Structure formats: C-alpha cells, structure tokens
Amino acid sequence: MQLLQVYRCLCDETRLRILNLLLDGPLCVCHLVAVLELDQPKISRHLKSLRDSAAVETKRCFNWTIYRLAENPSAVLENNLKCLQDLRGEEAVFQADLKRREEVVNDLAACGEGQLPQQIRDLCLTAKCDC
Predict the structure, then answer these.
(1) pLDDT tens, 74-106?
(2) How far apart are alpha carbons 128 and 112 in whole angstroms?
(3) The pTM is what?
(4) How far apart are the first and last CA of the chain?
(5) Is the pLDDT of residue 115 over 90?
(6) Which of 25, 62, 94, 123 has a beta carbon 3.0–4.6 Å from 88's, enabling a disulfide?
C-alpha cells in the first residue's frame, strides 16, 4: 500500500473508529452499525474505502459480511495501527466505542440458539468460522 493511500484511509474519523474497533477482533457490519450508531450505508461506504486501501479484509458467512484488519498490512499501515492502538485510550470517542463494542459482543455471546448462526457468533467472538 502506498503512503498516500494509507493516510487517505486514516484521515477520516469514522474510518479511524472502525479500525479502533477492529483492533479488538472481527465484526459484522450490523455490529459496527450498532456500536457506531451510524446508518448502514455510511458504514458500508467507509468499509469499502478501508477494503480498497487493503486495511481490512472481508469474509462472507451466510448473509453476513465479517470485517477484520488485514492479515498482512503494509509496514506503513501496521505502524499507524500500532500508534492508533497506543493512543486510543486518550480519545473519549474511542473509549466510548470500545465500551459499546464490549456490550454488543456480550449480547452476541448471549444470543440464544436459532437467533444467530453459530458460525457468525464464532467468527465475531473468536475470528474462526468454517463457512
């Protein structure tokens, strides 16, 4: 990934918030919507930008699209993600997002049988899925 591509990717608050959330593991679009409290089309546009910049990867599992940080990011992106991780405790919006993420993940873990396919729960909770 080129230097300018990385910084274009990182120059938006919503994209930084998404990356902040994905530092703790993969999430489905619907969970990002719930955490960020933004509409799905807006989240999807930002996710497309992150995907086009090779910052995130997707996995389809049934009707869900699960997003996670790229497994092999460029050195520039990797260094910036480390910086984001080091500094995320200093931004109130990042802290609030992480708290909300924990609530959403706990709700996901508590989902009863039949409400959500086990593969989706496993993927979002452990980053593993056999879809």
Answers:
(1) 888 899 899 999 988 889 999 999 999 988 877
(2) 19
(3) 0.82
(4) 29
(5) no
(6) 94
Helix (H) or strand (E) holding 61: strand 56-61
DSSP states of 80-112: HHHHHHHHGGG-HHHHHHHHHHHHHHHHHHTPP
According to DSSP, residue 68 is labeled E
pLDDT, position 129: 42
The answer to whether 42 touches 14, Cβ cutoff 8 Å, is yes
Q: Mapping DSSP to helix (H, G, I), strand (E, B) and coil, where does residue 58 land?
A: strand
Nearest-angstrom CA–CA distance, 54 and 72:
9
Instruction: Judge whether 112 and 14 are in contact, CB under 8 Å.
Output: no
> Token pair for residue 4?
């300018």
Closest CA to 4 of 110, 101, 80, 99: 80
Identify whether the C-beta of residue 10 lies closer than 8 Å to the C-beta of residue 80. yes
In the numeric block, which tokens belong to residue 81?
């993600």
Q: Domain map of the chain by residue range?
A: 3-126
d(CA 8, CA 1): 11
